[in-house]
C-alpha cells in the first residue's frame, strides 16, 4: 500500500527536493504541495494523506497552527515537522499541537523516507541528534505537575511512562525492567490509551508534564 504524503513548505525548492526523494520510493507518493499552512490544512481535508511534512515558519498560517487545525479536524494524517534549527522554539509548540515528531532539513534522503514510513505506521520520532536537548528544554516550559491524571495507570505502566520520558526505546525498557519487548509494547499501548495520547512523542511530553522526569542539569 502506497503511503500518501503532503509537503507543506513556503520554499518551492524544498518542496521539489522532498518530492524527488519521496516519489523515488515505490511505497511513497507525494499527492499534494502547499506553500502555507492554510493551504496545507485544506489539502489534508481534500486529499486525506497519511503523512504531512510540515515546515514551521510559513506565511498566512504557520506550521504550528496548521498542525493544530489538522489534529482538531479529526484527520488521521500524521504530521512530521521539518525544521532548519534543532532547537527551534516552535518545535515544542508543534509537539503540543499534535505533531508526531520532528526532523531537521539536513536529513539524508534515505532517513527522510524511513521517517515517513515510521510515522505512517503509527509510531513517532524525534531527530535522534537533538532529542535529549529538546526534552531538556521542553521541561522548562511545562505546566505544574498533575499527578492525579496518572491515577488510572498501574504502577508498572507508570514506570514504563517514566522510562519513555527518558527517551528509552521499547528494547531498552525491556532490558531495564527485565520484561519481554512484547510485554513492554502492551504497557506502552495501555499508557497511550489511558492517557488519551496520540503516540509515543506525546507520552514523552506527558512524562514531563506530570513530573515523572526532570531535565538534566549542566
TrEMBL record:
Biological processes per GO annotation: phosphorelay signal transduction system; regulation of DNA-templated transcription
Gene3D superfamilies: 3.40.50.2300
GO MF term set: DNA binding
Superkingdom of the organism of origin: Bacteria
Modified residues (4-aspartylphosphate): 55
Domain named HTH luxR-type: residues: 146-211
Domain Response regulatory: residue ranges: 4-120
Keywords per UniProt: DNA-binding, Phosphoprotein, Transcription, Transcription regulation
Protein's recorded name: Transcriptional regulatory protein LiaR
Organism (species): Streptomyces hundungensis
Gene this protein is translated from: liaR_2
Amino acid at each position: 500500500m502506497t503511503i500518501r504524503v503532503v509537503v507543506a513548505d513556503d520554499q518551492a525548492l524544498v518542496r521539489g527536493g522532498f518530492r524527488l526523494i519521496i516519489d523515488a520510493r515505490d511505497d511513497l507518493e507525494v499527492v499534494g504541495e502547499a506553500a502555507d499552512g492554510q493551504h496545507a490544512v485544506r489539502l489534508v481535508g481534500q486529499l486525506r494523506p497519511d503523512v504531512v511534512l510540515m515546515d514551521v515558519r510559513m506565511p498566512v498560517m504557520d506550521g504550528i497552527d496548521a498542525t493544530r487545525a489538522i489534529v482538531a479536524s479529526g484527520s488521521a494524517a500524521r504530521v512530521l515537522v521539518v525544521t532548519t534549527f534543532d532547537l527551534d522554539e516552535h518545535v515544542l509548540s508543534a509537539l503540543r499541537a499534535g505533531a508526531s515528531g520532528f526532523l531537521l532539513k539536513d536529513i539524508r534522503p534515505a532517513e527522510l523516507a524511513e521517517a515517513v514510513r515510521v510515522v505512517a505506521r503509527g509510531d513517532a520520532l524525534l531527530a535522534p541528534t537533538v532529542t535529549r536537548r529538546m526534552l531538556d528544554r521542553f521541561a522548562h516550559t511545562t505546566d505544574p505537575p498533575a499527578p492525579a491524571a496518572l491515577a488510572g495507570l498501574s504502577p508498572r505502566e507508570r514506570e514504563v511512562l517514566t522510562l519513555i520520558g527518558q527517551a528509552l526505546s521499547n528494547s531498552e525498557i525491556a532490558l531495564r525492567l527485565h520484561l519481554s519487548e512484547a510485554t513492554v509494547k502492551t504497557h506502552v499501548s495501555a499508557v497511550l490509551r489511558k492517557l488519551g495520547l496520540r503516540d509515543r512523542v506525546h507520552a514523552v511530553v506527558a512524562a514531563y508534564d506530570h513530573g515523572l522526569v526532570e531535565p538534566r542539569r549542566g
